[in-house]
Amino acid sequence: MTSLLFSPFTIKEITCRNRIGVAPMTRMSASGDSIPREDVLQFLITRAKNGAGMVYTEAIVTDYESAQGYPGQARILNQNQVDAWKNVTDEIRRNGAVSLCQVFHCGRMAYDGINPANRVIAPSPVAPMQENPMTGAPYPVPEQMSRFDMNHVINGFVETTKGVIAAGFDGLELHCAHGYLLSQFLSTYANRRTDAYGGSMENRYRFVHEVIQAVRPHIPDDRLLLVRVSNWGIADMEVSLFSDAAEWQKMIQLFSQEPIDAISVSTYDFSQPAFGTDKTMAGITRDATDLPLLICGKIFDKKTAEQALQDADLVLSGKSMLLNPDLVSDIAAGRKLALYGSEEAGVAYTATPLP
Ligand SMILES: Cc1cc2nc3c(=O)[nH]c(=O)nc-3n(C[C@H](O)[C@H](O)[C@H](O)COP(=O)(O)O)c2cc1C
To answer: Measured in angstroms, how far is the CA atom of residue 199 from the centroid of ligand 1?
Structure first.
């Protein structure tokens, strides 16, 4: 019997050789030049060599003003940064996989001193409730973004998109998940604005719409534009960012009217029913869109990958891809595999090269 997991999937002109890919994972390895350590770049190439259908980069920071949230994050804004990533995309392609670059602005998930211009900006002057694990201190109360700030942020996304395309990526993903800036606009949890960018779902969606409209003209028709969404954020993790399935589906419908090529849904656990329904996040999303869907969250072996494909077109794996260089061949062989815990993911931030 042919396996769906190991059958190709095509989005526009881009074909993934199978349905399993490397989820975006921040590694915090870059120094002052905002270029990841060589072994961190090699890690992505190794995953392509070992059979992944698609390989995501870590979240790439979109400007030098306020976009960075963690030490050692990368940018693709100058020629040296483009050159470093060009080698990675060439090698990923040569090894048969699709290269996808995730780009992000952290919004309020920042702290004093992390950005060269030392600003923390967000839709509204509201900080997350929990402390920042990076500093052990409360997150600073962000400055509410002005129209000037919004234009500057959009410009950062546009300039980064130019870098991503120059570096040869097959696609770019806007990080609209996990409580970072675009996610902050989408949810009432961080967006308390009373202007045209706050209130109704349509209003909260407006800034994301402007970003999509600004970047799309810089992405050739044969490359992809994706978005990643989630109902949870890295800070205050227990908070549901959307009130119910209807609100989530309203957002998905707004995304579906855009010139985007796929939606990636990030969950803690793909198999869990969501929003008090008997459907998974992927199932609820699929009911609201015809776009190709990617799903992630505790997909670690053949059984979970195949189960996840019942409601999605492609599956992504994070920690299992990080910790097991042979994940794809192990899955193909139907090997018994273990689910990794979050504490094991700390290996992502060590200076020791991963196999
Ligand atoms: C070390 C590490 C870094 C991560 N960095 C990002 C990131 O930059 N962008 C993102 O969207 N998700 C990030 N994630 C979340 C993963 O993409 C994925 O959604 C999560 O690990 C759940 O999938 P898993 O159960 O297969 O690990 C990160 C996860 C880990 C473990």
So the answer is: 30
Q: Give the domain CATH number at 288.
A: 3.20.20.70
> How far apart are the CA of 294 and the centre of ligand 1, in A?
14
Q: What tokens does 309 get?
A: 């494909």
315 lines ligand 1 (CB under 6 A): no
The count of C-alpha atoms lying within 13 angstroms of the C-alpha of 254, restricted to the half-sphere facing its C-beta, is 21
Q: Which domain, by its residues, includes 151?
A: 9-349
Q: Which atom of ligand 1 is nearest to the CA of 349?
A: 1
Query: Which listed residue (70, 111, 139, 180) is catalytic?
Result: 180
Q: What is the DSSP letter of 131?
A: E
pTM above 0.70, yes or no: yes
Q: What is the pLDDT of residues 146-187, one digit of tens each?
A: 999 999 999 999 999 999 999 999 999 999 999 999 999 999
The length of the chain is 355
Q: Which has the closest alpha carbon to 103: 194, 237, 243, 218?
A: 218
For the CA of 178, the closest atom of ligand 1 is: 11
Is 70 a known active-site residue?
no
Looking at the structure of the chain, the number of domains it has is: 1
| Best CA proximity match to 247, nearest among 275, 268, 279 | 275
Residue 75 tokens read as 């940018």
Q: Is residue 202 one of the residues assigned to a domain?
A: yes
Rg over alpha carbons for the chain, rounded to the nearest Å, is 19
